[in-house]
Amino acid sequence: MIVLLYSSLDKRFLCLKNIRTFLSTCCEKFGLKRSELFEAFDLFDVQDFGKVIYTLSALSWTPIAQNRGIMPFPTEEECIGDEDIYSGLSDQIPKMTEYDKRCCCLREIQQTEEKYTDTLGSIQQHFMKPLQRFLKPQDIEIIFINIEDLLRVHTHFLKDMKEALGTPGAANLYQVFIKYKERFLIYGRYCSQVESASKHLDRVAAAREDVQMKLEECSQRANNGRFTLRDLLMVPMQRVLKYHLLLQELVKHTQEAMEKENLRLALDAMRDLAQCVNEVKRDNETLRQITNFQLSIENLDQSLAHYGRPKIDGELKITSVERRSKMDRYAFLLDKALLICKRRGDSYDLKDFVNLHSFQIRDDSSGDRDNKKWSHMFLLIEDQGAQGYELFFKTRELKKKWMEQFEMAISNIYPENATANGHDFQMFSFEETTSCKACQMLLRGTFYQGYRCHRCRAPAHKECLGRVPPCGRHGQDFPGTMKKDKLHRRAQDKKRNELGLPKMEVFQEYYGLPPPPGAIGPFLRLNPGDIVELTKAEAEQNWWEGRNTSTNEIGWFPCNRVKPYIRGPPQDLSVHLWYAGPMERAGAESILANRSDGTFLVRQRVKDAAEFAISIKYNVEVKHIKIMTAEGLYRITEKKAFRGLTELVEFYQQNSLKDCFKSLDTTLQFPFKEPEKRTISKPA
């Protein structure tokens, strides 16, 4: 029914599309407020032509219209109320039913998705492929980012969307959006890098005339020269941020209660996606800011990204327990730390590093005098009272601003409801895509996205801490689990997971030649496939510092040996004979109890789908080995990491587990789904 109706609604659809384009332009180009705009159907159905006239009037008074010599209306002398002239028009035009409006919305969703997918294909076919003969692979990767991944995802998305729209009432459309929510998270990377991609494209085109000519030729072939590659690169970011607006309009014109509720789920998913993409983009900008801080501060031997997001920085005067005279300083405040520096031209000399975990602030207005500079002060006091600082500010307003940021930082370290329901929540950087245990929405950003319970590992937003179900674990050890160097492992886990810096993948080996310039620091050995976590990096610099996650070594290396690390799509583990799916210890022990030594399975923990474990029969007992996941890597020991569960299992099918656990001298021999190869003798 919907498909048949589409042809008769094409003209209406195009009219509504043009009206919405006009309304968007009024906001984006002319600066009108949303409250000054009419609704699309106010004009289309002539429901409220007075509101249309009101919008046009507001438009005529904008600076852009005035500069073009357009006469604004109404003038003060003119009479208001002319909308009565149009009062009978709406009665003469057939009105669209809500069903017709809903069909228009569905048509818009499908047609714009078809056009967008064609645009992605055009970028790949008419720009990316031809330019591969002119540009280096690094340039192609920087300019086009993950455009091919976007095309693959949207080809499948469009296919599923069309199938859903072909069903009665498009009742299953909401499921398509929910299904693709996590797949669309790849937009986080694209939107974070598209600005740099455009700048890099401009630099390359300006430096090489042949590239500039090729770009013009590509544009001519792709769309008769109407849009440049630079224009087209911005389209994906605009598209992913529009889905929730399209669904919002569809919800508005859906009458059936169940359909409306289902579409609201899809709307929530796309709103969550848009917020997540924006937060990833913002976090990448924050990491660049942190890197600039890092490179400008001398004597700083640790990564600032470990200490959260920057809150505020600026000049102040300071006294301490050791020195009572006021000292001129420049301070950087982050979520977890205060860096007190002395300014030296364009750089800073670190004088003191204050970890805020053990400090609190206290206002002291006794010396405040508005007519005297640097008299506005508050105290930064250590909990034990052994150390403290007096921070002086130039004006009362600056003092208030710094106090607010300190309070916010300490609130992030010790949030309200951090211990609610038996939990112990702490700020945490999640490596994998994670949803809040309370609201099921995504934890947004690339580092310190939210909080994780130190006991049960439950993830949550700061505002959701009080609504997370009771803690399921209170720090106890579970019998039967391997515990070698447990304290050391926990410390290493925490150290790794606190890192929130960008990661690169090595594609060319480096063994120290050429050496890092001057006394910059030691070189970092690189092998193809290694994952390097950046600690210091500038796009314009040839040498970067990082930590090799395979060896835990830190050092410097040429930046042209690495490329952005892209985590592959989740592996389909169900094809393996050793994968048991969600299962707890008791289930594994029941399955393996009567099996041969060396029989094993890999299971997903029921309470935490991000955690896995190996269960293996050895010496008549079932042993359980926790698989640690961090940085997108899998490991059962600090010595060796793998990029996937399959690689980990295949390695230990060939190599003994005794290298990790001395009491476990066996390989992973028999996947539990294989038929038993020996007859178990019954006791006499």
Automatic annotation (TrEMBL):
Keyword Lipoprotein set for record: no
A GO biological process held by the record: intracellular signal transduction
UniProt xrefs under InterPro entries: CH_dom, CH_dom_sf, DBL_dom_sf, DH_dom, GDS_CDC24_CS, PH-like_dom_sf, PH_domain, PH_Vav
Phorbol-ester/DAG-type domain boundaries: 422-471
Residue ranges of domain SH3 in the record: 499-567
Signal sequence region: none
An MF annotation (GO) of this entry: guanyl-nucleotide exchange factor activity
Gene Ontology cellular component annotations, sorted alphabetically: cytosol
PROSITE patterns, A to Z: CH (PS50021), DH_1 (PS00741), DH_2 (PS50010), PH_DOMAIN (PS50003), SH2 (PS50001), SH3 (PS50002), ZF_DAG_PE_1 (PS00479), ZF_DAG_PE_2 (PS50081)
CDD domains in the record: C1_VAV1, PH_Vav, RhoGEF, SH2_Vav1, SH3_VAV1_1
Domain DH: 101-280
SMART domains to which the protein is assigned, alphabetical: C1 (SM00109), PH (SM00233), RhoGEF (SM00325), SH2 (SM00252), SH3 (SM00326)
Alphabetic keyword roster: Guanine-nucleotide releasing factor, Metal-binding, Phosphoprotein, Repeat, SH2 domain, SH3 domain, Zinc, Zinc-finger
Entry annotated with the keyword Zinc: yes
Domain Calponin-homology (CH): 1-63
Record protein name field: Vav guanine nucleotide exchange factor 1
